[in-house]
Amino acid sequence: MPSRRPEEIGYGHVVERYVTRMYAGLPRYLVLNGRRFLSPRWWHTTRFTRHLLNDAAAITDEELEALLGYEWRSRLTAAWLIGVDRRDRFRARVGDLLLASEVCYSGGAYCFALARFGTHADADILTAYLDRYLPRTDLHYDQPAALGALLRLDALLDTHHADRFTQPDGLWDHWVEGVARLGHPSHSPAELRHWTDLHCDFADGWTRPQSRRGRAR
Fold first, then answer.
1. pLDDT means per 10 residues in the chain (217 residues)?
2. Global confidence as pTM
3. Helix (H, G, I), strand (E, B) or coil at 208
């Protein structure tokens, strides 16, 4: 999927408005990627979250497409905004980007968005990703985030898609052994599910009250 600068398609404002907005000296994409908003000691969570919710509601589909067609910072931010607002019409687009794995860091945000959508279709995308990339024990991409999201969806949907990956001496164990030789740390499936839960519960905790009030689109 070719990358295009947003200004080339008439959306030159989107990076500054949505991606690099600053919080305590950090741009939004770094706060999202570093999970700083989850820390109770970060004093800027309320302001950061309020702006994130407002932008997730206000950004147009065309602006999101402009971000998704650019580099990792823009794609990561766009996927978070899509996930927070649960714009499931972007499911196929997000799934294609996840499976393509073209750039670093953004894959975890795609997995967050799919976990937020919360349907069998999203579980199918995550399963397809793990089928493709867990056998690649030479690649440390977004396998952990995908497994954590799939485990959350299994719990939500009462399904068992992740079972065949996490069974003893299965694909997950073999992948962990392989990337450990490359120096990457390992995390248990339970830990990965926990991180997905933290992200989704954070978004749920802020968006549910707003949903009850009703939001004009």
1. 82 96 96 90 91 96 97 98 98 98 95 98 98 96 97 98 97 96 91 96 72 34
2. 0.91
3. helix
